[in-house]
Amino acid sequence: MPRIMLGSAVLLSVLIGYCIAHEDHGEVQSCESNSFSRIQANFRPGAVTLDGHPDDWSEVDGFEFSLLPALDPDEENEYKGGKMTVKALHDGHDVFFLLQVDGEYAYSKGENSKCPSVALMFPVGESATYHNMGGCKESPGTCSDKTCHGHEVDIMHFSIGTAIPGRLYGGNPLDNGNGSDRFGHLVDLYAWNPHCRFLDGLSPSGNDTSAENNWKGAWWHDSFNVHSGFLEGDSPFGTSGQKGTYYFEFSRPIRTMDRLQQDVQFTIGQSNKIAVAFWYPVDGKPWSGFQHYSINCDWIPLDIFSPPSPSGGSWNAALAFTLLLSVTSLCVSVFVGYWSTRTNKAVAFTPIDHL
């Protein structure tokens, strides 16, 4: 019984913390969407280790975006630290993302709103809109999987206040049955609108323990003077105000076992949509949930490219070389067999103890 109570308390604290972090949503001001931007995820198996370090992404093309306030996308209020670079790839099983953004080091252990935070959002339902986080017009008291069906959006949110840099967070065995993460607050959620957001597996009509947190991720800041090996006791890990770049690295299976309309399902060779949000404690002031920046004021297309087919020239050359090697091997085998049958010399057996 104490163990069950502890688990419930942890889950409740996660839900309370998330709801507080995303309160007070206002109306979005109009803006002109950048309709020419796209993010492309090429097939690159075995290219990335999920550790927050950007080294293994050096050969992957990035896509650069201005960060404007989500509710007031005016260029005068653009994030002063610089633009965000988004990179993506897949290995046929998982899709990977790297978010890269300049920012002075800010970290306050256990206080997510005094640390940078990021989120990815994807449409799930056919009627899901970028604006109003799915766009269902129902209130918190009436939204449900029936009244808001078709407005579902899938959200990954990573608040780093309890996350050690370079360590892996997200789905873990202790949180099976819902989308929470008791260790690093890298959570898997779905929403119908800004006021109807829930961890995967939880809903107004009841909970379903078949849900999972399918995301994993790590973070890093390049002002750190060590490459790895941080422990919780090393917090705050770096010097406050140190200039540098934040890196947030994530992965998730292309397809999940979701049966609740709470996870986006990617398909290789097809396009989906994505939104990216960024929170930062400007001038050391804690941020509120609505005070986030976005890479665009609407969805950005996300292309999951198929593995490239071998080009005709290289394929023919490889085929010719393989055929030549096979013929040569066959000729050598025939010659060795013929030579063996023409040889009458016998080799005497020598016991091993006489050698």
Automatic annotation (TrEMBL):
One Gene Ontology MF term: heme binding
Domain Cytochrome c-552/DMSO reductase-like haem-binding residue range list: 54-294
A Pfam family matched in the record: EB_dh
InterPro entries the record matches: Cyt-c552/DMSO_Rdtase_haem-bd
Signal peptide coordinates: 1-21
Residues annotated as transmembrane: 315-339
Keywords: Electron transport, Heme, Iron, Membrane, Metal-binding, Signal, Transmembrane, Transmembrane helix, Transport
Highest taxon of source: Eukaryota
PANTHER family: HEME BINDING PROTEIN (PTHR36044:SF1)
Annotated protein name in UniProt: Cytochrome c-552/DMSO reductase-like haem-binding domain-containing protein
